[in-house]
Amino acid sequence: MADEIDYESLPPNAGLAVNMLAGALAGISEHAVMFPVDSIKTRMQVFATSPVAVYTGVGNAFTRISSTEGMRALWRGVSSVVLGAGPAHAVHFGTLEAVKELAGGNEAGNQWLAHSLAGASATIASDALMNPFDVIKQRMQVHKSEFRSVMTCARVVYRNEGMAAFYVSYPTTLAISIPFNAIQYTVYEQVKRFMNPRGEYSPTSHITAGAVAGAVAAAVTTPLDVAKTILQTRGTSTEHDIRNVRGMMDAFHVIWKRDGLRGFGRGLTPRVMTIMPSTALCWLSYEFFKAAIRTD
Q: What DSSP state is assigned to residue 167?
């Protein structure tokens, strides 16, 4: 019987194609599994005018949405994520590994600066590809969304608001994602090395390190995520101030005016609930697929 694969013993840079394919498969796995909680997060971050769409917590949102709209409503928009997550995560992980290698992140010792640079670089590239899919996803997630298909949503948004609608949140997305991924990747590497200093086969270290890294990064960047949701769903609102939001600072002003300081924490719990396990799954899936599809 062949020896069991010890994927932590593989060369750190296993090849661009392997890293990209592993990243694509990991990204689809990550987003699809946690999508219902992500839908709840979007609903809680939007300033809804209907009292039916105002939720007191994750449990309340889940019960109300599933009972009034059906369980399928929690999965509305998942096709956009599947279409975008594969290519975006392929670009993300391909860039991540390439920059880490170039910056010396695979060398012995604490290479936190190289890890942060790799995480930030990967984000800039992947978010440029994923942003339009994320806009479509959130337009389909909101309460009483008129959209049931990705193509219809994309066509209507483009016709009514132009191409800018798909990228109005991109600067805010980068403002979230660059620190998010830099924090996530740095914490992941540090926790993984602490738990598994010998680099032995240990899925537990990937799961735990991924979960801790995701939770920390998600909590720190929640205020920016609220602003991003406002920007990406502005076209669905009937409120004048929300429809006229043009950028991150406008979104911050609306949040502060309507809900004060606590408004910047809207959706914090479901965001952490979504990202913590999905990040753990993503890193576990990535490490697994990288080993499984690698050929010597």
A: T
Residue 170 in contact with residue 192, Cβ under 8 Å? no
User: What tokens appear for 128 in the block?
Assistant: 């440029």
- Residue 144 has phi, psi (to 5 degrees) of 60, 40
**Which H or E run includes 230?**
helix 203-232
- Tens of pLDDT along the chain (296 residues) come to 334 333 333 345 556 676 667 767 766 776 777 789 999 999 999 987 778 888 888 999 999 999 889 999 999 999 998 888 878 878 887 888 888 888 887 676 667 788 778 878 888 888 889 999 999 999 999 998 989 999 999 999 999 999 999 999 999 998 987 788 788 888 998 898 898 887 666 788 889 999 999 999 999 999 999 999 999 999 888 888 999 999 999 999 999 999 999 999 999 999 999 889 878 877 887 777 766 665 44
Q: What residues contact residue 240 under an 8 Å CB cut-off, 6+ apart?
A: none
- Let me know the angle formed at the C-alpha of 58 by 54 and 63, rounded to the nearest 5 degrees: 75
Residues 6+ positions from 66 with CB-CB distance below 8 Å:
73, 74
Integer Cα distance of 249 and 252 in angstroms? 5
pTM: 0.74
Distances (CA, A) of 21 to 89, 105, 216, 227, 276: 9, 21, 27, 32, 23
d(CA 154, CA 133) in angstroms, rounded, equals 9
Do residues 44 and 113 make contact, with C-beta atoms less than 8 angstroms apart?
no
d(Cα 39, Cα 45) in Å, to the nearest integer?
Answer: 10
The gap between the terminal CA atoms of the chain, to the nearest Å, is 18
Q: What residue type is assigned to position 105 of the chain?
A: G
**CA gap 188, 208 in Å, rounded:** 9
- Residue among 39, 228, 32, 220 nearest 131 (CA): 228
